[in-house]
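ok posting inputs for the NAP job
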Amino acid sequence: MTAEHSAAFDALIVGAGFGGIGAAIQLKRLKIENFVILDREDDLGGTWHVNHYPGLAVDVPTTTYSYFFEPNPNWSRLFSTGAEIKQYAGDVADKYDVRRHIRYNTVVESARWDEDAKLWRVTLAGGETLSTRYLITATGFLSQPKVPDIAGIDDFAGKVIHTTDWDDNYRADGKRVAIIGTGATAVQLIPVLAKSAAELTVYQRTAIWVVPKIDIRFSERAKRLFARVPLAQRAIRAVTDTIYEAMISTAVIRHRTFRRLNIAAADLAKMHRFASIRDKELRDRLTPDYDFGCKRPTFSNGYYRAFTKPNVHLQSEGIDHVQADGIVNSDGTKTEIDTLVLATGFDLWEANFPAIEVIGRQGRNLGKWWRDTRFQAYQGVSMPYFPNFLSLASPYAFLGLNFFNTMEYQMRLMDRLFTEVKRRGATTFEVTEEANARYLDRMTELLGDSLWTIGNCATSRSYYYNPSGEPSLLRPTSTKEAVREASDFPFSDYQIS
Ligand code: NAP
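and the output
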């Protein structure tokens, strides 16, 4: 039997989070309606569907943490809760009629380019195969939970909860709880658990930078104003965008010139620690030994104060092994616990780049190629030998702290590229090796002046760095530059045929 030579879909998107929803909206703007979105979960929203641990809130102001084209007048506060952000994802999907394209509970395993038919064959768990002309993976950067490889962890007889699989019925009241990890998730969760747990032991391997969260509640009057005069909300966005952008594109990316700004941020965190904790020894143990910004800093008013409660204990000696009823610490002491919370984050480089197996032209395996050469992606989306494929969660794609800025430039790139393909009556596009190499060289050169290259980051254990030690996760340009390049890149960077 010969394989079908016409694709069932014009486009197939993997992932129904904000990336997938944005890509779907862009396809609709391009009048491409014959597409499907596949997601392994049972609802849309991506990370905001999966994560629902207590205390979950965004740590970028929501005026900035939203699509450029879809401001939301209903945010209850500047730093909105996880539930509100999930609601926003649903509202946007409804407004743009995206929901009917989504197939839930569908796990994508692999995609293979069929050179003869000039289409992608996408294999699902269970064996079903779908064909599509364009493949877009929007699988997010932080989507594969990491379970730590700690001796004896499977022997623990009490309750184990990973923060990405929170049990909403769980109550910590009166329980002895241990939490492993002090990343952004733990920083939000610890103050909540500290309120009810009988004992809370926090296992810190690497201290995190924490600055105060300057939050405000939007009154009903303000929300009505935002709805009636969207420009008012845009003005607030301009301020929040500028502050975040300035931090990233000066203090971090142009660190060689603007390192003073970075030091000022570290000083703010230091003052915050000093104002929250009187005990100097405790303060010292919570003090990072790497530069501010080497890994994602966090925002919290309650994190440091939680450690001053009598029921909260910081354990920074390390874990030797886990037993059925507790944790044996590296110093030989044992902490007996009822619940073990794993706030251990995500496996970004091994499990997520790429999140599915992708085999391009001449059998090129994307994951293997990235590892055999270097992690790379032209404009954070395209790789040579992978025609008609956009990988939205790629090396050098993510613009600093705000995912929606990333989405904005990626949507503009889709707009320009797909419009040109259609104008030429072409069937395939593929980035040239020359354009890809040029982009990689430029990213490498820009990173040379960044905090991640010249800062003191060796002990940070930051997921910004790939296993070879290169900081190849973030795109070291401003949002403005990324949007401009996505809107006017030379068509000769792609082979369109
Ligand atoms: P994370 O930042 O990767 O933190 C994981 C924590 O677990 C780290 O403290 C890590 O220690 C620790 N850990 C991992 N394996 C361990 C082991 N074997 N032994 C001891 N400790 C171990 O993950 P996350 O906190 O889930 O946050 C991930 C990202 O999600 C954030 O950076 C942020 O971008 C995003 N996030 C955003 C929000 C928001 O409000 N927008 C909220 C939460 C998360 P080491 O540092 O020593 O590796």
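notes: The chain has two domains: 3-144+348-496, 153-215+228-342. The radius of gyration is 23 Å.
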